[in-house]
């Protein structure tokens, strides 16, 4: 019953004060939309940058041989460490909690030729495990190197996306022949397009990949350039890295505490920094949006104070006729919360509309795909409700404390 009376009174005031009502609702609308849009775009940018960063591989460690910096068991310092392919097998067999591992040979500036098209390209010799390690996913209808290719030392080749386009254009590359330094290789796969913003010897899209057994047999490399590995769980990465020092230290006679003997790029550390940075960035955006909401709440409070001033005589009449302070207070809080709810819902709808329209502009490569999180929406609307209640509380309390006699004199 009271809600109906309150609503009737509010509608009457809204009709008589259209501009004021519009400005009040717009302030809340803009504040709500700002919070949701800032966090939605922040989440989209985070996801896009994370996707691009993980294009090189998720939670992997790239390990290169180094030089010893400590004397050990009678051996001098400054000895050169070199990896062999069997070192990857040794690591897989002896290091607990290790997941995938692959050696990596690199042939720089190999001459690739298809028909009259000739390109300088980088050829990588690796194991089948290299594909999931480095997020090199074959396109539909193609495949990466497999165990049979390794065992039989097949001359098969897997092409990066850009390399395949340069050689074959829009034509299907599977089953075609690519000459690598004059030697024919059969194309068994083409890489699916991926985002990649970090690398250690060039983007994968411009590379070619062949079985390590074939690479070693053809080019006579005794040593691998580096070894790529990852733990079975990201939390075990440090343990696996320590295991690499222990296992290879025992084989090559260097102190397991000699960090210079092996050079490692642990992308897990970058991932942690990256996640922390963007979490702080999103919190910063949320704080900015929250302050925008607070400004909107202050404007509502000021406007409701003006409303109390204008309706002082009306308040006095109601209280003289028996209206209790609680009734008067509830009326103003109801009006404040209703206006806040209208502005908040309109702001939420506006934000959702903007987020749904953005993908049509094809800018996901730069800002990602913004996403309105359900949890963010719930928290935002909850904060908005609290701000609305607080904004209406003080004007409502002031109205409830009016002296009927003094109010009727105005």
In spatial order, strands of the major sheet run 2-3-7-4-6-5
**Unreliable segments of 5+ consecutive residues:** none
Q: What's the total number of strands?
A: 9
Return the structural class.
Answer: alpha+beta
Distance between the termini: 29 Å
Q: Number of folding domains?
A: 2
Radius of gyration: 34 Å
Kindly state the percentage of residues in helix. Answer: 40-55%
Average of per-residue pLDDT values: 84
Let me know the largest β-sheet.
6 strands, mixed, barrel
Shape: elongated
What would your notes on this structure say?
With 410 residues, the protein is an alpha+beta fold. The chain folds into two domains: 2-53 and 272-409, no CATH class; 61-266, no CATH class. 55% of the residues lie in helices and 16% in strands. It has 14 helices and nine strands. It has helices spanning 2-16, 18-53, 85-94, 130-133, 147-151, 161-168, 212-219, 237-252, 267-310, 312-320, 325-357, 364-367, 374-400, 404-409; strands at residues 61-65, 98-114, 117-126, 156-159, 177-180, 183-190, 207-211, 226-231, 262-266. A six-stranded mixed barrel has the order 2-3-7-4-6-5. β5 (177-180) and β6 (183-190) form a beta hairpin. α2 (18-53) packs antiparallel against α9 (267-310) and α2 crosses α11. It is elongated, with a radius of gyration of 34 Å. The protein starts with a helix and ends with a helix.
